[in-house]
């Protein structure tokens, strides 16, 4: 036991444990591929191979944003792209982007982009 303690003392100071680039990439890829599905912290932590508390902490350290906010931003961006592509119904865009309903999409679009879905659509013309 004393040998193990001495060995711990020889670890370089300040070397923080974090998500590896491969783990982070797996999580980001999974999020993008499954925006229309429930993306719980448990699912994402299994994808990364770490505990949910570690994923929350390490994701924020790596991305400078919480995992929840990152997912919302990706959903908003996906919905923005869908809206600019064609004349789909807003309710269909909301569901395809992973929002529960169109008012949920509109709320987050206004928060993240400063414009409602209809304002965004009008601006493409």
The oligomeric status of these chains comes to: single chain
Fraction in beta strands: under 5%
Helix content percent band: 55-70%
Note the main sheet.
none
Q: Low-confidence parts, pLDDT < 50 over ≥5 residues?
A: 7-15
| Shape, per Cα inertia axes | elongated
In total, the number of strands is 0
Written as H for each helix and E for each strand, in order along the chain, the element string is: HHHHHHHH
Could you outline the blueprint of secondary structure elements for this entry?
Elements: H1 2-9, H2 21-33, H3 41-48, H4 52-63, H5 67-85, H6 90-96, H7 102-113, H8 117-124
Helix pairs in contact: 2-3, 3-4, 5-7
Outline the structure in words:
The chain has helices at 2-9, 21-33, 41-48, 52-63, 67-85, 90-96, 102-113, 117-124. The model is unreliable at 7-15 (pLDDT under 50). It is elongated, with a radius of gyration of 20 Å. By secondary structure, the chain is mostly helical.
Keywords:
single chain, 125 residues, mainly alpha, 8 helices, 70% helix
Explain briefly what this protein structure is.
The protein is mainly alpha-helical. It is 70% helix and 0% strand. α2 crosses α3 and α5 packs across α7.
């Amino acid at each position: 036991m004393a040998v193990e303690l001495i060995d711990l003392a020889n670890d370089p100071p300040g070397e923080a444990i974090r998500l590896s680039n491969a783990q982070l990439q797996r999580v980001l890829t999974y999020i993008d591929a499954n925006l229309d599905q429930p993306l719980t912290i448990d699912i994402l932590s299994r994808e990364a191979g770490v505990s949910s508390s570690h994923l929350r902490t390490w994701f924020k350290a790596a991305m400078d944003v919480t995992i929840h906010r990152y997912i919302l931003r990706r959903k908003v961006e996906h919905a923005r792209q869908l809206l600019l592509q064609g004349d789909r119904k807003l309710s269909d865009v909301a569901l395809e982007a992973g929002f529960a309903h169109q008012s949920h999409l509109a709320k987050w679009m206004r928060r993240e982009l400063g414009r409602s879905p209809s304002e965004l659509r009008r601006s493409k013309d």
